[in-house]
Amino acid sequence: MSKQTDAIGAGTGISVPLCERVAGWRERAERGICLLDARMRTLTAEPEEGAATAEYAVVLVAATGFAALLVAILKSGTVKNLLTDIVKQALNVA
C-alpha cells in the first residue's frame, strides 16, 4: 500500500500523511463534542436558576405599587366616610 500525502505541502517538500490529518480532525471533533456536551449538561442542569430572583423582584414591585394604591384610596375622604358609615351601621344593628 502506498502512503497518501497532502497536496498542500507538495511544492515545499513537506508531506503530511492523510491518515495523520484525519486523526487530527478526529481529535478536534471529539474535543468539540466533549465541550458541547459539557455545555449542554450545564444549561439543562439548572435552566431557570436566575428566573426565580427576577420573578420575585417583579412580584415585589407589583405588590408595593398595589399597596401604595390602596393607601391612597383609603386616605381619601369619600372612602373614609363610606367605611365609617359601614362600621356605624354594623355597631347599631348588633
Structure description:
Keywords: Membrane, Transmembrane, Transmembrane helix. InterPro entries: DUF4244. This is DUF4244 domain-containing protein. The chain crosses the membrane at residues 56-74. With 94 residues, the protein is mainly α. The chain folds into 2 domains: 17-46; 50-93. Helix content is 74%, strand content 0%. The protein contains 3 helices and no strands. Mean pLDDT is 80; it is low at 1-6.
Q: Count helical runs.
A: 3
How many structural domains? 2
Helix/strand class: mainly alpha
Net shape: rod-shaped
Biggest beta-sheet profile: none
One letter per element, helices H and strands E, the order comes to HHH
User: Helical content, roughly?
Assistant: over 70%
Uncertain runs: 1-6
Quaternary organisation of the protein chains: single chain
Beta strand count: 0
How much of the polypeptide forms β-strand, as a percent range? under 5%
Would you tell me the overall average pLDDT?
Answer: 80
From the N-terminal CA to the C-terminal CA, the straight-line distance is 110 Å
Radius of gyration: 37 Å
Notable traits:
single chain; 94 residues; 74% helix; 0% strand; disordered N terminus; transmembrane helix
Summarize the structure.
This is DUF4244 domain-containing protein. 74% of the residues lie in helices and 0% in strands.
